[in-house]
Amino acid sequence: MRNANTTIVRGASALAGLARQNGGGRQVATDGGDLWLTLLVLVCLVCVSSARAHGSQRHVLGTVSEIDATHLVVKTNDGKTESILRNTNTKYVHGESAATADDLKIGDRVVVHASPSGNPPTATTIRFSTPKGQGASSSPAP
Which residue ranges does the chain devote to CATH 2.40.50.320? Predict the structure, then answer.
């Protein structure tokens, strides 16, 4: 509610100027433009931080089609194949739990985070899940 002691200000610079002059107990109200500007800046910061969250890593999504001690081949969602090196520094995550290299199997769905350089690239983290109907937990009881 506005009264005789309320001044409406448009824009941040006008608000700053009025704040310097305001000493007589007057209320200062803005038109909401500052709020929109603040929200716009906040949204931009969130978008930039989300884009940087993956950094410069290369990402490969798909299904494991081949695997051995030093590399795996991923059949991507568009039907191509990508060879990925792995080493002792590669981390494995099955669902939300830490895993080992031995847990990864042919047919598992993977998201590989790999170094941006190298041909083939080297995996830093391999997140994977076993499709329903596969794996030791789904085998029928004798």
Answer: 58-133
Task: Give, as one character, the DSSP assignment of residue 131.
Answer: P
Q: At what angle do helices 33-53 and 12-21 cross, to 10 degrees?
A: 120
SS3 assignment, position 4: coil
Q: What are 128's two structure tokens?
A: 């994977």
pLDDT tens per residue across span 2-30: 555 555 555 555 545 545 555 555 555 55
Record: fold of 58-133:
OB fold (Dihydrolipoamide Acetyltransferase, E2P) (2.40.50)
Write the pLDDT tens digit of every residue in 78-124: 999 999 999 999 999 999 999 999 999 999 999 999 998 889 999 99
- Strands of 71-76's sheet in order across: 81-85, 71-76, 58-67, 109-114, 123-129, 91-94, 97-99
Give the span between the Cα atoms of 93 and 111, in whole angstroms: 10
110 neighbors 127 (Cβ within 8 angstroms): yes
Q: Is the entire prediction scored with pTM above 0.70?
A: no
Containing 124, the helix (H) or strand (E) segment is: strand 123-129
